[in-house]
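User: I'm new to structure prediction. If I give you an amino acid sequence, what do you actually give back? Let's try with this one:
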Amino acid sequence: MKSYQDLEIYTFAIKLFMETHRFSLKLPKYETYELGSQLRRSSDSVNSNIVEGYGRRRYKNDFVKFLVYAHSSNLECKNHLIKISSLYPELSEEAKRLSAEYDLLGIKIHRFIQYVEKSWLQNGK
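Assistant: Good question. You get back a string of structure tokens that encode the predicted 3D arrangement of the chain. For your 125 residues, that looks like this:
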């Protein structure tokens, strides 16, 4: 593994961030700066925490800590999508699809956390 870009959870998270960002711009204008902004920031936080954790991979506990942050931000995204789905029925189908993608990403992050906790060496391999 040469880079964080080699991590499956990163490639999935960045792809989902791009989709989520575009989706958030479909919200009504007044919501773009409220719920839309929160959704964009939490989605960005998922992949950013994966990257920061990878940067600290030499220190297993730091790596795990940032992966946990990524997982928490992933849950936050789901929560925002649930609210959007309820508040804006016309966006409900796409919000539910994205929410299902965040479910899959959450599972992958969780499994990766378990792998790092059990198998990651202190030298980052």
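You can read the tokens as a compact description of the fold. Here is one thing that stands out. The helical segments are 8-24, 29-32, 35-55, 60-87, 92-119.
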